[in-house]
Amino acid sequence: MNREQRKQAVAQAALDYVRPGLERHSVLGVGTGSTANLFIDLLGTIKAEVPATVSSSEASAQRLRDHGIPVYDLNAVDTVQVYVDGADECNRRLELIKGGGAALTREKIVAAVAEEFVCICDDSKLVSELGNFPLPVEVIPMARSHVSRELVKLGGDPVYREGVVTDNGNVIVDVYHFPIADPRQTELSINTIAGVVSNGLFALRPADILLLGADSGVRKLSATG
Ligand code: 5RP
Fold first, then answer.
1. 205 Cβ partners below 8 Å, 6+ apart?
2. Is the pLDDT of residue 107 over 80?
3. CA–centroid distance, residue 35 to ligand 1 (Å)
């Protein structure tokens, strides 16, 4: 299977995973990116079974609406039973790097609300130590230089993502060559820098289930082993 086929297989596996409870799941969280798009398109084939969604980006919300699937403001719902989203990197503890599509803050918010977070990606994203993928950090625009200087002090090599404005009106700094031996501590440390909105480490709230598209089929890893 090539990479696209593995992404398609994992999107289908996510649908198979959530579908039995979909009508009971009053709200389904839907993420952002090319793998999440494949999942959205599959949802479109069973839209009568999808009562309500919340989305981690304007782009995904529009794609859901284009399929005729209802999208709600997160403030209008009490709970999100399942959240399905991709990742840029993952490890066996189900800690993630996300934000390649600049949606990290809304992704983190939906993941925080969700009772279960199902992460879907092809197996090229599985690494022994996070950090080969540059870590996205969403920053208030006026703090970009300050935050970058502080990220250098933490050992990283920050690069402003030119021309990108997030759905929240902020900018993205990608941190290259960043040693992430302790993802939880690194997530906390970056969050304490004034001007940081959020960072793309999902270690304090990792995924609960990881579906990995591999040549041999879809592998399932869970937080409980
Ligand atoms: C967007 C994300 C995506 O989940 C991540 O970039 C993976 O995207 P893709 O499925 O296209 O590889 O975090 O902010």
1. 108, 111, 112, 117
2. yes
3. 7
pLDDT of residue 157: 98
The residue contributing the CA closest to ligand 1 atom 10 is 35
Q: What DSSP string describes 54-122?
A: EESSHHHHHHHHHTT--B--GGG-S-EEEEEE--SEE-TT--EE--TTS-HHHHHHHHHHEEEEEEEEE
Contact between 123 and 6 under an 8 Å Cβ cutoff? The reply is: yes
d(CA 178, CA 6): 28
Buried/exposed 185-212: b ≥16 CB within 10 Å, e otherwise: ebbebbeebebbbbbbbbbebbbbbbbb
Catalytic residue among 107, 116, 138, 187: 107
Mean local confidence (pLDDT), 8-28: 89
CA nearest to 143, candidates 173, 109, 185: 173
pLDDT at 143: 98
